[in-house]
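Exercise 7. Given the encoded structure of a 264-residue chain, write a plausible sequence.
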């Protein structure tokens, strides 16, 4: 039997420790490298934070698997067993440029089902977490179930990039949605944007290309408050690939799919 409560206590301690080290790193200069393109950034702190989690997980839970953004985890072909899906710093560009609006994101899955999700807003010291079936919380305060809001009163997160011609989705549909809602925002951290949907600060989040470590924790959180997380076609997310992502309360999610995203 997996002791989820014990794992929960352990991971929270590690997250707090990692958060302190990251805040301390603001005093020192960063070593910044690029990955797939000049705007795809990684720092020594992203790598050190991932290494910190991985070495602790390996020592404490040797039978568990790890999928980490910076590639220091396992090479996995499936989510069989218990898999920790880790983004040590989600929002690295914000971390470098602003020292805020970035998060540690950890989802713990069992045979493909999200059991635990943690998103720690390091600069604001806000920990969002959820255990499947046992509620979602922010700093110990239970998050209420999502409420439905009409499209005209909704605040959604979408990046301006997706409103110009792109190869992933018909931008005209997204422009039509963006002009109908009350307002749009873009925070630059998928994990935080999902945490904001879960905590009712946003009614929806839409984006075109996220990796499993960007949404693994957020999916657990949003679902635990009754929300729905799919791709932009309303299909289930593939936890082993990049996906488009659309999160919101069920009625709102359905309405946006019918009236905008899937509209002929
Ligand atoms: C990025 C952020 C960003 C999203 C990108 C991600 P990273 O993660 O979540 O908001 O738009 O697609 O890659 O690289 O900062 O961990
Ligand atoms: Ca990320
Ligand atoms: Ca990252």
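Solution.
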């Amino acid at each position: 039997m997996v002791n989820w409560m014990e794992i929960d206590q352990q991971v929270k301690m590690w997250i707090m420790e990692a958060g302190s080290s990251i805040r301390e790193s603001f005093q020192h200069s960063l070593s910044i490298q690029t990955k797939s393109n000049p705007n795809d950034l990684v720092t020594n702190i992203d790598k050190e934070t991932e290494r910190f989690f991985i070495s602790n997980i390996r020592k404490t839970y040797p039978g568990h698997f790890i999928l980490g953004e910076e590639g220091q985890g396992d090479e996995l072909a499936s989510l069989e067993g218990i898999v920790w899906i880790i983004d040590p710093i989600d929002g690295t560009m914000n971390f470098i440029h602003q020292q805020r609006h970035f998060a540690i994101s950890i989802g713990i899955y069992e045979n493909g089902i999200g059991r635990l999700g943690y998103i720690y807003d390091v600069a604001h010291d806000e920990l969002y977490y959820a255990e499947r079936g046992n509620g979602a919380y922010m700093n110990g305060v239970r998050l209420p179930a999502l409420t439905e809001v009409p499209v005209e009163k909704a605040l959604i997160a979408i990046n301006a990039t997706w409103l110009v011609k792109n190869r992933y989705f018909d931008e005209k549909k997204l422009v039509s949605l963006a002009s109908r809602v009350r307002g749009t925002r873009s925070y630059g951290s998928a994990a935080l944007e999902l945490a904001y949907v879960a905590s009712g600060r946003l009614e929806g989040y839409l984006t075109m290309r996220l990796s499993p470590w960007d949404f693994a924790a957020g999916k657990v959180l949003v679902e635990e408050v009754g929300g729905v997380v799919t791709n932009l076609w309303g299909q289930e997310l593939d936890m082993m690939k990049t996906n488009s992502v659309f999160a919101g309360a069920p009625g709102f999610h359905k309405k946006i799919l019918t009236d905008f995203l899937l509209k002929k």
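Remark. The helical segments are 4-25, 44-60, 92-98, 171-180, 190-198, 212-224, 250-261. Students should compare their own answers with the one above.
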